Task: inverse folding
């Protein structure tokens, strides 16, 4: 696996400590058994008690009762952010760039959130609490003044790290709902492509691991965009422009996808690809069936867990963040189910490992 | 190490100063070993009525069942926690943490702890020290808990209210002071603008004339300028300026100035640096945009009138309001302090109380609840010797809680191996830790700790022997001991220090013993001290007059000549013609063959010490076999083992002593070579004068006979060790199988009746088990058959290991010599290469150099010799104990007794 690469010799000098740390963090990720205990909880207090026995430790100890789901959410996120920031602050050269790439996706989400929020006349302060702390940057809060994309780019984002991804979506059109979705997807596309290319150039085990994960991410976006676009105003040409061109579907699959008109076609296209065929099998909206989205999440988790099988590569950092995010989603899902006394669906979290 | 080097034949040593010294050195060696021998013999004699209590064997333990009345349970556990002699077992291991009975109370404690932590944080914020009077309160009763809860609740809400008020006030204060700054700074901007305009356009007066339109400045008839003023965080200024420029396409004019005084953030209380800015722009659209950007950067905008008079008026108003606010703020601060000082007085006690309650409830969660009889059932391990104390505690607790039914403690039988409990004190604790680090002793197994107390520092000192270094080490340990009260109270997080402090008594003994061996080696910072006067007399040789002595750089002193050795005429107390009475004669310091001489002496010492310690280990093993009545192992393993060791190494040790005793300094050139003799003995080569292997002179035939007998005996021991035990077990097993049938059923019935005691409350379980027993009987036999093969393999491994280890462990003890050599060589190098350079230099330069070099010398002595060499000698001594000594008798597969004790919990070291 992986060609001989000189940089791997010095990997431990630059990032060995951080990799060790992240692998340690990864061992603290909740296991199947923990989830089993969590799903048995009757109240959020029980949940807190059980989480105390895991690596989360006393992260909720200083919260007054009664607990709410949003407090748990905040604290979970706070912990992840603290870990990430620690790693980022100690990272060196290339790893720093890599970690920044991870942050960019959160920045994109934050910008889109703020713009959509302003369109709907929400208060800035209210919106800010919903932003992911990993994706904050100086100019973020001023995006609300922009009325069209050119403005957005020229006035605000040109100084931000997102500027290079923005080139493709500059237009004089006013911002509206449709427009924003397109900006989001174009930004994401540019971001994924840039990230993919960077990893490829980095080479070695990092490229092996990250290209696999990012290719899946790109394909997932393409498929989801296609499925979601049915019955909307989005034209097929516009849609084709949004597909990130780095996945396994590129180029043939994407051409086919661009022509697709219904879900069945998408499914047929996916069946040509060994990786994606099982994901479409057995999905449905019936009770007991898993949604396509969940299947995608499961596959993502598998890829991310596999990335820990290789050493001397940056993929573990990306994978850890993603796994931890999935874990937060799981815990919040279980917490919501408990809080709303809706136990029927409590089992539909995505187990990790 | 080559054979020559270990026991150099006398003829090969040729050097200038060459006393034939083997006999002479034997005296000191004996005295060096004497202490160890003496000590060990003393231990051996005392083994039967050993007085060191449970340190020799771990405390006798028993499994007990407690029936506690529900109302008395809390008080009982509290008493037992104070006592710290009982280890509870978890009786509901399959129950989730949040499904247990007292989880609600545990949660209440958590909540109280949270409140206390909140108060503690507030104390830290204000830097109020917590009162610590060292008083540890008893665990409060459950009803007191409600009172405490109420108290904390009130304090927390009080505190939060005060904080809220303070925050609001501070925010107000911040806003006002920001406004004040703006008014002050903008004054400058406006003045500048005025000057600029006067110079360039002459329209200056209009700035002020047009003041009726608030917030707008008009300049000339066509342009109308608006402005906003505000405050922004200093680090955001750059990005702010840039975005402003971009978003407004350069159509705004921004001026900013830094505030000199940092302001206090009302929420966090941190100091923050801020900038005042003022932005001029044109038109309403731009105004909105600028305002949005300001909002985006969280800049606070303040209304700022344009006319200087109004500004001045506002400024005056602001100043007075600021003063008022300051007084109010001070009052709030005082109030806060009063509340907090009350908290600071009590918080430590509260913490302890809450932790104790929590620990009690956590323990109660381990118990079985019997709802019908309203009692809690607990199982625990406790020392048999302390049963009285525990009963007393239970009685006392039942009385205080006012329960009518007494709590019952019932001792049970158990097949499980009990935990190991060694009572230690401050002195023995460090040594016990050393042994436990290797493995906790099996229940009631001989514990090497009491012997380690002496043998460990002694073996360390054999390697570290130096009077000066030992003295420094002693001083360090005395320092720790003198201030130990202080150190015990003020714990640090420094692990290295904690480790050294934990072993302070160990270091004390190591220092003392190092001084002792250093004195024997006659080395003090590698320098010999002439205490009693050397036994050598150079002037005894008639040919050596003063002239001759002066002309020679080196001399060969021959002890064979009369008067040279034991003939000193100098006016020392030792001029009677005896050898140097204690330790190495200081004359060796001058000899060029000092190392060769010491090597021979120290190597033999190492072998003897090793043999003695290993023998002692075997004797402890004998003690174990006798105690556990394991006669099979005693006769089939222990006896051949000790014969083997005696034959192989014991004989060598006897020869060493014999050689020291028989050959004197004068005739040492004819002394036999022990090593070659030993090799020849195993090769059945007859001892001969030519090979220097005849020890018992004139009786070579007898010697050969003896040696052949010894070797054959040793060889005979090998099959003895290897086969007898497995064969006996095999036949015993066969017999059992032959008589199987009723007998087997009988034993299993016994087994049940044993268990019945333990599980009296669960009869279903017993029936179930007996069924299981009968069905698995036939399988059991097959299992035992199968185990025989495995048993044989294990026995083979053990036998081979033992036989090889007799040789390799003895060789391993040579590290005593190697490290001792390294230590003395290193300290000598340090002396000759560093310190003596300065001392040799004459005159003023010598004074300066000595002064400077002393610091180099002393820091290297501490850094290399004391710390590094000390650590290495420590590690080797540890290894000798763990591997060479303990492998003879110590299993170390037990588990530690960890009683439920408030003492540990209160310190906050282990929670739950």
Result:
């Amino acid at each position: 696996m992986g060609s001989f690469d000189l940089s791997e010799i010095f990997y431990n000098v630059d990032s060995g400590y951080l990799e060790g740390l992240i692998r340690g963090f990864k061992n603290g990720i909740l296991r199947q058994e923990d989830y089993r205990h969590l799903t048995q909880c009757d109240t959020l207090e029980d949940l807190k008690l059980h989480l105390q026995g895991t690596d989360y430790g006393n992260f909720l100890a200083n919260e007054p009762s009664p607990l709410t789901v949003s407090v748990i959410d905040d604290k979970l996120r706070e912990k992840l952010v603290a870990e990430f920031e620690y790693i980022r602050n100690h990272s060196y050269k290339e790893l720093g760039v890599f970690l920044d790439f991870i942050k960019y996706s959160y920045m994109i989400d934050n910008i889109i959130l703020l713009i959509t929020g302003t369109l709907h006349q929400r208060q800035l302060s209210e919106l800010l609490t919903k932003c992911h702390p990993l994706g904050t940057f100086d100019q973020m809060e001023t995006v609300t003044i922009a009325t069209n994309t050119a403005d957005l780019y020229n006035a605000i984002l040109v100084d931000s790290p997102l500027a290079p991804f923005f080139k493709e979506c500059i237009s004089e059109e006013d911002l509206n709902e449709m427009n924003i979705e397109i900006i989001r997807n174009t930004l994401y596309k540019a971001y994924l492509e840039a990230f993919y290319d960077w990893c490829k150039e980095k080479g070695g085990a990092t490229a092996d691991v990250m290209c696999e994960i990012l290719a899946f991410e790109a394909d997932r976006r393409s498929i989801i965009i296609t499925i979601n676009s049915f019955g909307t105003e989005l034209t097929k040409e516009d849609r084709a422009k949004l597909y990130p061109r780095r996945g396994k579907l590129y180029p043939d699959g994407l051409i086919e996808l661009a022509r697709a008109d219904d879900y069945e076609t998408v499914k047929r296209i996916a069946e040509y690809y060994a990786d994606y065929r099982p994901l479409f099998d057995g999905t449905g909206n019936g009770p007991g069936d898993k949604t396509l989205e969940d299947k995608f999440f499961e596959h993502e988790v598998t890829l991310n867990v596999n990335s820990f099988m290789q050493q001397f590569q940056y993929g573990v950092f990306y994978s850890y963040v993603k796994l931890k995010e999935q874990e937060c989603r799981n815990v919040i899902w279980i917490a919501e189910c408990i809080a709303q006394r809706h136990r029927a669906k409590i089992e539909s979290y995505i187990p990790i490992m | 190490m080559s054979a020559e080097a270990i026991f150099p034949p006398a003829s090969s040593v040729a050097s200038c100063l060459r006393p034939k010294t083997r006999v002479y050195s034997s005296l000191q060696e004996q005295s060096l070993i004497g202490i160890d021998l003496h000590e060990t013999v003393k231990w051996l004699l005392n083994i039967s009525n050993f007085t060191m209590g449970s340190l020799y064997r771990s405390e006798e333990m028993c499994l007990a069942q407690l029936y506690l009345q529900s109302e008395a349970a809390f008080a009982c556990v509290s008493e037992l926690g104070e006592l710290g002699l009982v280890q509870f077992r978890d009786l509901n291991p399959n129950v989730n943490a949040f499904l247990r009975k007292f989880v609600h109370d545990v949660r209440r404690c958590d909540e109280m702890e949270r409140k206390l932590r909140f108060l503690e944080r507030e104390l830290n914020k204000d830097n109020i020290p917590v009162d610590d009077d060292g008083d540890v309160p008893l665990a409060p009763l459950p009803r007191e808990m409600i009172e405490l809860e109420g108290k904390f609740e009130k304090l927390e809400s009080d505190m939060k209210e005060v904080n809220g008020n303070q925050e609001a006030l501070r925010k107000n204060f911040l806003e006002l002071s920001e406004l004040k700054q703006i008014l002050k700074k903008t004054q400058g901007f406006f003045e500048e603008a005025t000057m600029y305009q006067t110079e360039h356009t002459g329209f200056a007066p209009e700035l002020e004339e047009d003041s009726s339109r608030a917030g707008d400045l008009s300049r000339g008839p066509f342009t109308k300028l608006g402005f906003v003023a505000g405050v922004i965080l200093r680090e955001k200024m750059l990005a702010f300026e840039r975005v402003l420029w971009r978003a407004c396409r350069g159509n705004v004019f921004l001026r900013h100035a830094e505030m000199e005084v940092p302001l206090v953030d009302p929420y966090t209380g941190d100091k923050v640096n801020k900038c005042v800015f003022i932005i001029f722009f044109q038109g309403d659209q731009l105004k909105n945009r600028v305002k949005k950007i300001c909002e985006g950067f969280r800049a606070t905008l303040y209304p700022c009138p344009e006319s200087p008079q109004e500004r001045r008026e506002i400024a005056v108003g602001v100043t007075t309001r600021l003063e008022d606010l300051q007084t109010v703020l001070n009052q709030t601060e005082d109030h806060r302090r009063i509340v907090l000082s009350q908290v600071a007085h009590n918080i430590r006690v509260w913490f302890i109380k809450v932790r104790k309650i929590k620990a009690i409830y956590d323990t109660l969660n381990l118990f079985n609840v019997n709802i019908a009889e309203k009692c809690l059932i607990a199982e625990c391990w406790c020392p048999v010797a302390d049963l009285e104390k525990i009963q007393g505690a239970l009685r006392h607790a039942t009385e205080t809680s006012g329960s009518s039914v007494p709590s019952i403690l019932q001792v049970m039988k158990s097949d499980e191996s009990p935990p190991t409990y060694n009572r230690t004190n401050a002195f023995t604790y460090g040594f016990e830790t050393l042994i436990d680090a290797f493995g906790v002793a099996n229940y009631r197994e001989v514990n090497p700790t009491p012997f380690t107390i002496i043998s460990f520092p002694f073996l360390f000192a054999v390697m570290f022997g130096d009077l000066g270094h030992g003295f420094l080490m002693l001083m360090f340990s005395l320092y720790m001991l003198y201030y130990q009260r202080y150190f015990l109270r003020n714990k640090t997080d420094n692990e290295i220090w904690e480790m050294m402090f934990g072993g302070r008594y160990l270091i004390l003994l190591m220092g003392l013993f190092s001084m002792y061996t250093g004195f024997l080696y006659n080395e003090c910072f590698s320098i010999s001290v002439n205490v009693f006067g050397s036994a050598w007399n150079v002037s005894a040789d008639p040919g050596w007059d003063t002239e001759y002595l002066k002309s020679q750089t080196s001399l060969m002193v021959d002890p064979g000549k009369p008067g040279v050795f034991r003939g000193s005429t100098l006016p020392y107390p030792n001029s009677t013609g005896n050898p140097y009475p204690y330790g190495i004669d200081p004359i060796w310091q001058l000899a060029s063959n000092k190392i060769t001489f010491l090597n021979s002496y120290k190597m033999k010492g190492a072998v003897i010490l090793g043999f003695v310690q290993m023998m002692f280990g075997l004797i402890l093993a004998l003690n174990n076999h006798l105690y556990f009545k394991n006669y099979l192992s005693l006769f089939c393993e222990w006896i051949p083992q000790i014969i083997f060791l005696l034959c192989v190494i014991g004989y060598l040790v006897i020869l060493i002593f014999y050689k020291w005793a028989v050959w004197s300094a004068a005739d040492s050139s004819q002394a036999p070579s022990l090593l070659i003799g030993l090799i020849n003995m195993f090769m059945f080569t007859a001892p001969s004068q030519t090979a220097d292997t005849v020890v018992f002179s004139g009786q070579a035939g007898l010697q050969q006979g003896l040696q052949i007998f010894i070797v054959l005996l040793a060889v005979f021991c090998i099959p003895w060790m290897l086969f007898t035990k497995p064969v006996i077990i095999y036949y015993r097993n066969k017999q059992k199988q032959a008589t199987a049938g009723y007998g087997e059923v009988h034993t299993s019935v016994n087994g049940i009746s044993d268990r019945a005691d333990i599980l009296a409350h669960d009869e279903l379980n017993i029936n179930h088990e007996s069924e299981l027993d009968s069905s698995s009987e036939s399988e059991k036999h097959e299992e035992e058959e199968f185990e025989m093969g495995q048993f044989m393999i294990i026995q083979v491994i053990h036998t081979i290991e033992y036989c090889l280890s007799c040789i390799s462990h003895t060789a391993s003890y040579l590290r005593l010599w190697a490290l001792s050599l390294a230590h003395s060589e290193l300290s000598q190098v340090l002396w000759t290469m560093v310190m003596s350079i300065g001392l040799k230099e004459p005159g003023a330069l010598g004074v300066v150099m000595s002064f400077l070099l002393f610091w180099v010398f002393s820091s290297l002595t501490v850094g290399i010799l004391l710390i590094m060499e000390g650590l290495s000698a420590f590690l080797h001594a540890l290894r000798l104990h763990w591997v060479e000594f303990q492998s003879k008798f110590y299993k170390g597969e037990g588990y530690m007794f960890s009683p439920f004790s408030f003492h540990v919990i209160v310190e906050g070291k282990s929670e739950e």
